[in-house]
Amino acid sequence: MATYKVALALLLLYGAISLQATSGKACPLYCLDVEYMTCQSSGDEKLNPSCNCCLAPKNCTLHLSDGTSLFCKPN
């Protein structure tokens, strides 16, 4: 019985490591109060906003409702 539990624990650990390696980067689960988004590729066109920089295309700027902005740089 103990061998079964050890094998199951190792299998779960291996699965968790494999999932992390294939998924790349995990996105945070929060949304900013974004009014609109602009991207270098679209010039000054106001685009539908993304929740945060993890979900937005890289080289885009999120314009927040409080008047500030957040540039989403590439990794």
TrEMBL record:
> Keywords assigned by UniProt?
Protease inhibitor, Serine protease inhibitor, Signal
Q: Which organism is it from?
A: Ricinus communis
Q: Which residues form the signal peptide?
A: 1-26
The protein's matches in InterPro entries, at most eight in alphabetical order, are given as: Prot_inh_I20, Protease_inhibitor_I20
Protein name per its UniProtKB record: Serine-type endopeptidase inhibitor, putative
- Bilayer-spanning residue ranges: none
By sequence similarity, the record places it as follows: Belongs to the protease inhibitor I20 (potato type II proteinase inhibitor) family.
> GO MF annotations for this entry?
serine-type endopeptidase inhibitor activity
Q: Does the keyword Signal apply?
A: yes
Which Pfam families does this chain map to? Prot_inhib_II
